[in-house]
Structures are given as C-alpha cells and as structure tokens.
Design goal:
The structure is a homodimer of 347-residue chains.
Chain A: H1 4-11, H2 15-23, H3 30-42, H4 49-56, E1 61-66, H5 71-87, E2 91-96, H6 101-111, E3 117-121, H7 127-131, E4 139-142, E5 152-156, H8 158-171, E6 177-180, H9 187-202, E7 212-213, H10 219-231, E8 238-241, H11 244-256, E9 266-268, E10 285-287, H12 290-306, E11 315-318, E12 321-323
Parallel strand pairs in A: 1-2, 1-3, 3-4, 4-5, 5-11, 6-7, 6-8, 8-9
Antiparallel strand pairs in A: 10-12
Helix pairs in contact in A: 1-2, 1-3, 5-12, 8-9, 10-11
Chain A binds a DNA duplex (30 and 30 nucleotides) through helix 2 and helix 4.
Chain lengths: 347, 347
DNA sequence: CCCCTCTGTGTAAACGATTACATATTTCGG
DNA sequence: CCGAAATATGTAATCGTTTACACAGAGGGG
C-alpha cells in the first residue's frame, strides 16, 4: 500500500508538500504541484482516510442505528439519508441493533471514533436506554421522542395523519369507526391512537371502548381483530388500522366473511406501503414520506455536527398525506396504472 | 473525550498496561486489572476505533457498493449482509454509487482506509470499470460476473430459474411461450433469456423471434409488450416476464383487454417480490433468496480478508425456487393467508 | 549462590496523515 | 543596497492506539 511518504520520496519533496498539494492548502510552486500530481497519479496513491480522520478528528461518516426493519421502510429511509449525506460528502455506517438498552449502548460504543454523529431509531420507546446515551457526539432520534428532553428528534406527524383519515371517514357519514391499535409500547402507535380519538371528539362522536381493539402491527393481528369486530352486536361501519399490514389482514377477514368493502365496511390503513394500491379493493391509507424523513434527519444531524457550539436542539415532524382509494369510498374503479416511476427493481 | 492516556494517568499505570487489560493481551496482575477496569468504567472510557484501526490495520468494517436500488431487494440484501457481518464482529459502510466507471472508482477511493474489503454490485455490467478496480483489498462482485476473470463473485442462478419456470409452462401444455426481456446490458436479464431459450430447446420448441419482446424491467414495459403480444396474429398462450414488475404490467394489460388469466394466457414473473402473491390472480414467479445472497457474499469476503494469502477465488451461484400460483395454473383459489412472519413493518 | 525463566510493568516506536513553526530564498519599497 | 514581507519548502509534533523491547523482581533448579 503506497503512502504519502512513498510519494514524497519518489518526488524528492517532503510529506508536508505532498499533503499541501493534495489538499490545496498552503502555497506551492506550480512546478512542484505538477510533479507531485504526476507522481501520485502514477503510483496510484490514495490517501488513507482513517489516518486523516485521526488527526483532523473528522470522519465524514454518520452512523445509522436501526432496529430490525423490513422492506420498503428500511430502503427508503436509507435512501433519503444517503442522498443527503453524499451531497455533503458524508458516508453512512449502518448498524441494525436491538432497540434495548444493551443493544444501543453496544452499537454506540462500536461507533466511537468511526462517526461524527448518529441517527438512531427506536420506535418501541425505552426512555432509559435513549436518554443516557453515553454520547459526546451529536445524535438525532427518529420516530421515538421522549417529549421534553433536550435532544434533536424527528417524527412522523402520526396524530395529524390519523386524525385526517378518521375525519375523512366521518365525512363519508360513518359514526361507528373502529381502530385496530399498534403495540402498546410503540410511540407511533400511541400517536395514531391519539389522532383517532381527537378526530372522534372533533366530530362529537362518543368514544366506544369496544371499538378500540388491540393489535401489534402484524397482518395476523388485523385479521383476528376484524373478526372480533364483525362478531360485535353493534358492528362498526368503518375500520381504521394503525398500519397497512393490519389493514391488509382486515381485508382478508372481511373478504372471507363476505362483507362488502366499502359498502358494508370501509377500511383504511396507515403508511401507504406499495402493496396498498394493489389490494382488492385498493386500500386508502396515510402516506408517509419515508425518504424525506431520512433526508431531514441527516440534515439536522449535519447541522449539529458543523455548528457544534451554537446548535439549537429541535423536535421536528414530517407531514403525512391522505391517500383515498376504493376501500373507503366507492369511486369508479381505480386500476393501478403502469407504474412508471419506481418500478425498476434491479432483478 | 477521554483517552487511554487519561485512564492510565488516573490509575497510575502506563498506557501499555491499560491497553493490555482492555484487550486481554499480555500478563497483568489481578489487582491491577481490577483497578484499571474500575477506573475505565468510572471515566466512561471508550476506545477510539479509528486510532486502533490505524495501528492494527484492521477496520472490521466492510464496504458495500450498491447501485440505486428500491424496495425489498435493497433491504433484504443488506439484512443478509449485516447479519453475517455482525456475527463476525464487522460493520457495514454503505454507499450508493452510479455503476459507471467514475462512480465506482470514486466510491472505492473514498473507502480506502475505512474498510477491510468491499462487496460491489453492478448488474448493468461495465467490464471496464469493474476489472481494473484500483483495489488492493478483497472484493466480491454481486450479480455481475464478467466470466472467466479471477475475482470472487456471487450470482443468482438466473438461467436455471428461468429454465425451470419455462419448463413448468411447457408441462402445462403451452407451446407458444413469449418472453419479455430485461435491459440489454443487464447481466441478470441476459441469463434469464438464456434460460428461457434453453428450456424451449429442451422441449423441442422452435424459437420464434416475434415472441421475444424488449423490456427494461419496468411495469410500463411489461404493459406495452403485453399489448403488442396480444396484437400478434399468432398469439402466445403464455408470457414469461423477466421480472415481476413487468409481469405486473402484463397483468394490467391483459385485465384491461379482458383476457382470462390463466385460461387464455398464463403469466409468470421472476424475483417473487412480496407483491406477487397479492396480485389478482396471484403471480407465479421464481423466488430469489435475496437475504441469503447478501449473507453469502459477506462470507466469501470475510474468507478473503482472513485468509488473504491462500484464498481461492470463486464464482458462486445461489439457487432459486419455483413458486407456482394461480397465474399459471387454474388451481383452487389460493387466498393469501395472514402473513405471520414478515408483516411486522415498523410503522 | 548464580543464572535462567517467568511475571508484571514501563518506554518508545510505530500506523499515515495534517499542520504549526522554522528556515531559506526571492521580491520589493525606500 | 538593506530589511521586511512574501513565497516555497522542510522538520517535527500530533492524533489515540498497539506492541516490540527493555527492565526489575521473584522463584527455582543446579
């Protein structure tokens, strides 16, 4: 492996001069510049970023701590982060870790000396583990915001999204609207529930505990919760699932029970995963700009890194968007049109 | 930031001793061990991995160079890689790069001194850029194998998968089987085409150029290619799309044209993306073990890293699996059952 | 009792870069 | 023509570790 010393020796100059040429710092005669560039190129010299980091104490890398995620969400959030990172000359060091205290601490330690800052996500909030992060480096929290703590964080505007969706159902004339909740300890789930309740209140509808069913974000949970709701003496006319996976489970259950959608029962989800538009009927959902979420998180982090001193900590939220399809309103058949944009999957 | 020197001073020993205790190297008295551990813990000392790497010349990080990927494929391949990497104490440095010469070279340079090896993917093969990688570090190529070069590589067994799928169509009695091809320069696409042709040959069916339509892996391409096929005087009775996205486009086109699937026209895809089983009718496809692909790539790379000297270069292929659903055979309705495994998307 | 081995510890040289400071040469105003 | 300022380059310290080598004291075999 050729080092800066090798280049210096070959060009008969000191390492300092080589460094100056390659970084454009300090004054060097045009002649020497040319020579060094030529030699470095010929020897295929590539600076050792590790060594550079050590002395400059900048790694130009940001750490990403994610729980075990699947599918679209993972890809999109990474895409958003990488775009912004790359635009600013930064790299991404990714680590999937358990969201428990030990997992996070271990991962954070491993990142010491490798990254300039960390974006961490831990939706099943474990305040303990997040709050005394042993970090002297900037951190941005994603989707899990112990409120009121002095730490940068970025969340989906869950409550507003849920509220809008339920308001939409109300506007269609529904009065008995059920919700299938997410895991109890999950921050996003809690917020979506809050939005649901607010919307009912807005509409002057008395909440009915029987219409709030437990769930855990899985298709199976949606499936069984739907069956329970159907068995109710006083059935709801609409079901709002706290995420699309559960909504899909609901669709299966209703279909098997011969319930007409949306005529007999309207169904809505949250997330707007790619599957949603392909359901039968296509599923109304709350679209989450995942990519943007990642991008914004990195922006916040980079600000924290560059303005280390005068960096104002913030809690931010990214907005969602209502996507109405046939599962909530009997519109003229919306056939998924050939998807021109993102369909180009590599294989 | 507390360093090893701070700990040494506080404990009244030399840095060497601290290092020895923390790494379990060399002999240290139990008494001293205890003391140092206590002090290090109290001071919240965390070793600086960057500095360590510099002297040991091991970063315990592997670089991942991926083109601009979407959705499931990206997540799954990363998951597989991260699992294996973590199991071996390694981290993942991820970079999305253009698959052209410049992009790859830039990315590779940026990784110098940050990683011990690189897994690179570039399905639109650009032999030039891949072959004279300026790398002195181990590299494993993913899904893009300029044959016969001395370099580690891992591929999907595309040709066999395609061959099996077409053989399946033949076994159902089809003789006029069309294919919608992928991008001309794409390695996977070329191999799938090869498998298709082999299968026809196996069955003693003369190839018909009119049945080989161009495509580019997008839904839109599948859609229009299907319309062209329908307009043919001598229509095929089955369409094999080189990936699922195009197959989905085909389904749309056929549905709109009122063609019965699979009665009038059988349809098959490749990849088995999660959407496939939710199509109407559910789409037969060739399942690709993406996660395993990533895992195996990292295994190969790690072998190359640890056995730097006596490492035998290999070309490997991971096997696919035929998944037959209703789009190729009129079986009793296969309703997607509640998906218990992976459905738990985070939001 | 001497020498050798083993244990426990410290000193200092790496690793590959950046950069403050020193030095030598040139330029130029007065 | 002198001294200051500007230009070009080199020397060496530094970042936070690991580790080869040196050394001191203890224990043991001959």
């Amino acid at each position: 492996m050729v080092t800066i010393k090798d280049v210096a020796r070959e060009a008969n100059v000191s390492v300092a001069t080589v460094s100056r040429v390659l970084n454009g710092s300090g004054p060097v005669s045009d002649e020497t510049k040319k020579l060094i560039r030529e030699v470095a190129g010929r020897m295929r010299y590539v600076p050792h970023s590790g060594a550079r980091s050590l002395i400059t104490s900048k790694t130009e890398t940001i750490g990403v701590l994610l729980p075990d995620l699947y599918g679209e969400f993972f890809s999109e959030v990474i895409r958003g982060m990488d775009d912004t990172a790359q635009k600013n000359g930064f790299h991404l060091l990714i680590s999937r870790a358990y969201a428990d205290r030990h997992g996070i601490e271990t991962a954070m330690k491993a990142m010491r000396g490798r990254v300039d800052g960390v974006v961490a996500m831990s939706p099943d909030l474990d305040e303990e583990s997040l709050l005394n992060l042993p970090s002297t480096i900037p951190v941005v929290l994603l989707c899990s915001v112990p409120r009121g703590y002095d730490i940068d964080s970025l969340t989906i505007h869950n409550s507003r999204g849920a509220r809008e969706m339920v308001a939409h159902l109300v506007s269609l004339g529904h009065r008995r609207i059920a919700i299938i909740k997410g895991s109890a300890r999950n921050y996003d789930a809690a917020e979506r529930l809050r939005g649901y309740r607010t919307a009912l209140k807005d509409a002057g509808i008395a909440p009915d505990p029987a219409l709030e069913r437990d769930g855990d974000f899985t298709e199976a949970a949606g499936y069984s919760a739907a069956l329970e709701l159907l068995a109710l003496a006083d059935r709801p006319t609409a079901i709002f699932a706290a995420n699309d996976s559960m909504a899909i489970g609901v669709l299966s259950a209703l279909r098997e029970s011969g319930v007409d959608i949306p005529g007999e029962m309207a169904v809505a989800g949250f997330d707007d995963i790619p599957l949603a538009r392909y359901m039968d009927p296509p599923l109304s959902s709350v679209h989450v700009p995942i990519c943007e979420l990642g991008a914004r998180a990195v922006e916040m982090l980079l600000h924290g890194i560059t303005h280390k001193n005068d960096h104002q900590r913030r809690r931010e939220r990214v907005s969602t968007e209502l996507v109405i399809r046939r599962s909530t309103s009997a519109m003229p058949a919306e056939r998924p049109p050939p998807n021109l944009s993102r369909a180009k999957s590599p294989l």
